[in-house]
Every structure is written in structure tokens, then in C-alpha cells.
């Protein structure tokens, strides 16, 4: 009979959890500062142009 493997899942779980959290946070920051804020800046500039054109 093959003896059960014990403790391996618990050790691997913490590594997987911390890696997933780290990569998730990194991806979130990359999206927020790399894509989202640039999109919002373009949108704000567009609405500012519309408002200035409307006022003239």
C-alpha cells in the first residue's frame, strides 16, 4: 500500500495564495495606471472641448 502524502497541499497553498494575490494586485495597478487613467483623461479632455465649444 502507498502511504498518503501529507502536508504538501498546505505548504503549496500559501505559496499559491501569496503568488495569486501579488500578481492580482500588480495586474490591478497596471490596468489602473496604464489604461484606465489615460482613458479618463481623454474623456475629460473631450467633454472640456465640448463645453468650451458650447460656450462660444
TrEMBL record:
Main location: mitochondrion
Keyword Mitochondrion: yes
GO CC list: mitochondrial inner membrane
A biological process from GO: mitochondrial electron transport, cytochrome c to oxygen
Keywords for the protein's UniProt record, in alphabetical order: Membrane, Mitochondrion, Mitochondrion inner membrane, Transmembrane, Transmembrane helix
Spans through the membrane: 12-32
Molecular function in Gene Ontology: cytochrome-c oxidase activity
Keyword hit for Transmembrane: yes
Protein location: Mitochondrion inner membrane
Entry protein name: Cytochrome c oxidase polypeptide VIIA
